[in-house]
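HOLO CASE FILE
Compound: fe (ii) ion
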Amino acid sequence: MSARLFSLLFLVGTSCAQFVPGTDTGNGLQNGCSVTPADTLGPYYVPNSPVSRTMCLGTSDDDYMFVKGTVYDVNCHPVHGANVEVWQADKTGLYYDDRCRVQFTADQQGKYSFVTTVPGKYLLGYYYRPAHIHYRVTAPGYREIITQLYFSHDDSLGANDPCGSACNSGSAELIMDIRAPTADDLVQIAQLVTFPISKVVEFNPVMSH
Ligand SMILES: [Fe+2]
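Model generated. Tokens follow.
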């Protein structure tokens, strides 16, 4: 298993800008069904990741989250059968070639969900990038979405992100709240893992033709 540390590859020294709190953005469709903003693919994308709806699982006392959403088109219709690839750093901020990356297919209602570890933050130069999950969403007849999901109340978002203008962590449409699970969430979580999860994030990618 090869772990690669971002900070060794990206010795980017940038100034630490003023604190920008995360924004509470609801379900990701606060601007209607406008196309999800893009973000950088990053150097750790690996094609043909395994098909699974759980990733980055370690021990049952790790900090996990249930991520769910619906893939929409710009008319707010679900994109059924969209392929969703996700990859992230593990809880310590490390990327791997062979774990913490999966893909799956949205259902007939465009819905998807998966369980993962809360991603760790990693140094980019002297400063931490905000925690994030990378997404690549593809569907026949639609433009692919390459973006990143961020979490509100992370003090590395926006102007504090050492990725600077190459990343889009200041985009409210990519910053989602972490909330407690509903009863329905708990049912869905129990279909994927046998341990309890207290954090849920919703992210609804919007694709255009
Ligand atoms: Fe990343």
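CASE NOTES: The pocket of fe (ii) ion is lined by residues 42, 132, 134 (CB under 6 Å). The first strand starts at residue 3 and ends at 4.
CLOSED: yes
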